[in-house]
Task: structure prediction
Amino acid sequence: MRGATHATWATCAAAVVLAATACGSGGDSGSGGGNGGGVLSSSWGDPQNPLEPANTNEVQGGKVLDMIVRGLKRYNPQNGKAEDMLAQSIETSDSQNFKITIKPGWTFSNGEKVTAKSFVDAWNYGASLKNNQKNAYFFSYIDGYDKVHPDSGKQTADTLSGLKLVNDQTFTVKLSQKFSTFPDTLGYPAFAPLPQAFFTDHAGWTKKPIGNGPYAIQSYAKGSQMSLRKWDGYPGSDKAQNGGVDLKVYTDNNTAYTDLMAGNVDLVDDVPAAQLKNVKSDLGDRYLNTPAGIIQTLSFPFYDARWNKPNSAKLRQGLSMAINRKQITDTIFAKTRTPATDWTSPVLGAAGGYKPGLCGKFCDYNPAEAKKYVQQGGGIPGGQLKITYNADTGSHKQWVDAVCNSINNALGNTKACVGNPVGTFADFRNQITQKKMSGPFRAGWQMDYPLIQNFLQPLYYTNASSNDGHWSNKQFDGLVDKANQETDTAQAVGLFQQAEGVVRDNMAAIPLWYQNGSAGWSDRLSNVKLNPFSVPVYDEIKVS
Result:
């Protein structure tokens, strides 16, 4: 919601904070009218930030961007493969210099043509230090990034020297090193094009973003609802099969589920843990539970010296061994989660880099070893572990309490671990980005595309866009750099797995479980699917 890392991985996720009040009535003209069928309603949560593509790296905003923008590539909603969207061709002879030609005939929903300049201007904006975009790191492999986004001091250039306009349909990209899978990263929303209105009336655009996707935003009232409507002028092949989507804000997914059963909302894409035992009898074939490219972990604030001592890795490894993953996934999640044994996801398969058991003994429940390692690691800082989580979605309280009970039992101390709830997801994310965490905090990663790189670089590479714990390790960074330059896929995967071994040896984050995507829907809807990232494929849903 998410997603990944330098150039490419970010986080899947997304963020939004448009206006605090409704953004206008919309009407049928620019927003599609009712020609594509009925309008469905779906559960949602307010995002963290404005919907600028390069500033959106969490799930809720990502859902919206997936509906209103299209980039050079799009990730296939069935298998996650990067496929050409606006790209007519992406050519390279050396995996470092790329010639990109875009398809003609594309426009934004305000009628402005999408040109090569639409991409170049957007990427320069996203990379610039002065614009403070969370996904700036995605552009870090493009020549000149060190000038527009230096590690320290002021920027000395406003544009990336590696971006050159050729004509309205063509631009070139020069990278600072070989990066064989660079084209596969270009479906991530950070690389989306932007209209001139974004630059000439930025405040107006953030209140009501203008994109080039199958939907256009009609209105948004923060804390209540965002309304999107089918854009009839959309030139892509993936036209909306419905008239629009009303995203209704819920701060409790149990309430969303209750509203689904009462007919007050059509789609819930995060079935609460408390309802998993009943959902089949409640909904029958209107319930979907499928594997997704998602892993849940516990991250640590490495900017806090108490968690970054020379022997702290043993402490984190001990805490990992104190967690009875199988018991928790069986009882809390009714087997819709699978205990994690590495830091990726089984949906990758062996060819994509999934290696079961890579975590080794550190992911096995072993109370005796856990207690020994925690002691050797200097004990829990302050004497008590407080796991921070957002209390509004995801049934997090149940599993955090279960994790703490497991740790307390393993350590023989009923007060060793407690949950530390934060009211909303937006507040939780703000505390994380402001480096206010004093102990472990829940972290989830939705892949941006099915490659091992996407589970590692965005999260653990030094200063990467979703490295919320600010872990840094030169050996890990070096292995990732080598893997990115490797043109042989098998060799690259092997190098990434070596890098993952460094994550394990330092326990940069504690892997908990792999997650399935789930959804329940009303009898008004048909053709409901979740993509490999567990997000509903809204444009394919039909409304009766």
Q: What stands out?
A: The first strand starts at residue 2 and ends at 3. DSSP finds 17 helices and 21 strands in the chain. The two ends are 30 Å apart (CA to CA). The mean pLDDT is 90.
